[in-house]
Design brief:
Layout lengths: L7 E5 L4 E5 H9 L5 E2 L22 H15 L4 E5 H4 L7 H11 L2 E6 L18 H21 L3 E5 L3 E2 L7 H18 L5 E5 L9 E2 L4 H11 L3 E6 L9 H10 L3 E6 L16 H18 L6 E4 L8 H20 L3 H9 L3 H12 L4 H10 L6 H8 L1 H14 L7
Parallel strand pairs: 3-4, 4-5, 6-8, 8-10, 10-11, 11-12
Antiparallel strand pairs: 1-2, 7-9
The chain binds 6-deoxy-beta-L-fructofuranose and manganese (II) ion.
């Protein structure tokens, strides 16, 4: 698309003159949807305690209400991820309530997250547990979750397992892999034709010696074994410090096995901090690998962009708005990379110029173009300011303060 006066802003620097292609930014924003986690609105903590927020959501109605606030202010969060035990206490029986709330608040149920880690029976694992009765119970919950997903119209069943061990010699890791393969295969066969199962890996926590699905390779092999409706889910917080996450993303894209992301940020381990708060360039590099793949292949990657954070200190709804606007900014910057020019520099191993293609895009201030995009969609230019002026926070604080004050805070 030839830049003309209307869709570009010209910039001339000593080394380079470049234009901001506003249309490219708007097109990118038009196709970016970000799924919010219901649990991101609830009072959560660490093992050392939980600091209660009077406005926190605890009922599924309140979580839909808060998610709808973020969607109405940003226009890009039409779905909310649900965690079965936390949001659907009656399992399939909770489906009618969820559908009613979805209609009431204009936000659809997103990925369905089974929970085979909280119940006491899962002490030694779920699908990987040496006790066949426990494996059977876990599979039943996973299959129920697939039915819940079908009932509420969700496509993705998002799977995370705490299975593993804390001490060497206490688990047969090869045997447990076989049990996982067996269980995931049975779940796969239980899925509806349009459903997907996303397998999330995590190197450690709560298991501290081995985790059965510890990295992308293990998740990929298990997904392959399970069948064509299985994909890998990349939680950005589930990597060792020095791991190159965007390389993992590029391989999963190449294998057509990348199903989705849980975005958050971290300084040390699975800190679940707000996206882009510690290393925004990391998120940019991930978005760049996806956009470059889509440019090269001419096909849109079928990825679920989801947030998975627990806001232990920040005000929860504001932290979610901050996360979504940060994701939009970093995605818009990645959309500005000149793929032709980059491919040419890569082909010629022009290192400085190739790197500068990314740096130029990353250092571009896309906020004016995003404000223009928001205006064009009848959305507030500054969602955070609009939220603070809406009075919503005061209203829910009054409604929820008493109930939240009574909640348990201590770990033990
Ligand atoms: C595990 C995890 C998983 C969720 C949980 C809330 O660390 O990332 O995706 O189920 O957080
Ligand atoms: Mn996650």
């Amino acid at each position: 698309m030839e830049p003309n006066r209307t869709n570009v802003i010209r910039f001339a620097s000593s080394m380079y003159s470049y234009t901001i292609n506003v249309e490219k930014i708007h097109n990118a924003l038009n196709c970016l949807e970000i799924e919010l986690p219901s649990w991101g609105f609830a009072n959560t903590g660490t093992r050392f305690g939980k600091f209660l927020q009077p406005a926190a959501a605890s009922t599924i109605e309140e979580k839909f209400s808060d998610a709808a606030q973020v969607h109405n202010l940003t226009g890009v969060c039409p779905t909310v991820a649900l965690h079965v035990l936390w949001d659907l206490p009656y399992g399939v029986g909770s489906v009618p309530d969820v559908k009613k709330l979805s209609a009431q608040f204009g936000v659809r149920p997103g990925s369905i997250n089974p929970n085979v880690f909280q119940d006491q029976i899962y002490k030694h694992g779920s699908l990987g547990n040496p006790d066949p009765c426990v494996r059977k119970a876990a599979l039943a919950h996973l299959q129920d979750s697939a039915e819940i997903a079908a009932g509420v119209g969700s496509r993705d069943i998002s799977l995370w397992f705490t299975d593993g061990s804390n001490y060497p010699g206490t688990a047969n890791m090869r045997q447990r892999r076989k049990w996982f393969s067996e269980g995931l295969g049975k779940l796969h066969d239980h899925l509806a034709p349009d459903q997907r199962m996303l397998i999330e890996y995590k190197p450690f926590e709560p298991a501290f010696y081995h985790t059965d699905i510890a990295d992308w390779g293990m998740a990929l092999l298990l997904a392959r074994d399970a069948g064509p409706k299985a994909r890998v889910l990349v939680d950005t917080g589930h990597h060792y410090q020095a791991q190159n996450i965007e390389q993992i993303v590029s391989w999963l894209l190449d294998e057509d096995m990348l199903g989705g992301f849980h975005f958050n940020d971290r300084r040390y381990a699975d800190d679940d901090l707000t996206m882009g708060s510690i290393d925004p360039y990391q998120v940019f590099r991930i978005f760049h690998e996806i956009r470059h793949f889509e440019w090269e292949t001419g096909k849109r990657a079928d990825i679920a962009y989801m947030v998975d954070q627990s806001h232990n200190l920040k005000a929860k709804i504001e932290a979610m708005i901050q996360t979504v606007t940060t994701a939009q900014e970093l995605y818009a910057k990645a959309a500005l990379v000149d793929h032709e020019r980059l491919a040419e520099y890569q082909r010629r191993s022009e290192l400085i110029d190739a790197e500068t293609c990314l740096k130029e895009a990353f250092s571009t201030d896309v906020r004016p173009a995003i404000r223009e995009w928001a205006r064009s969609r009848g959305l507030p230019e500054d969602p955070m300011k609009a939220f603070r002026e809406s009075g919503y926070l005061d209203r829910i604080t009054t409604e929820r303060r008493e109930r939240n004050a009574a909640a348990v805070t201590s770990y033990a």
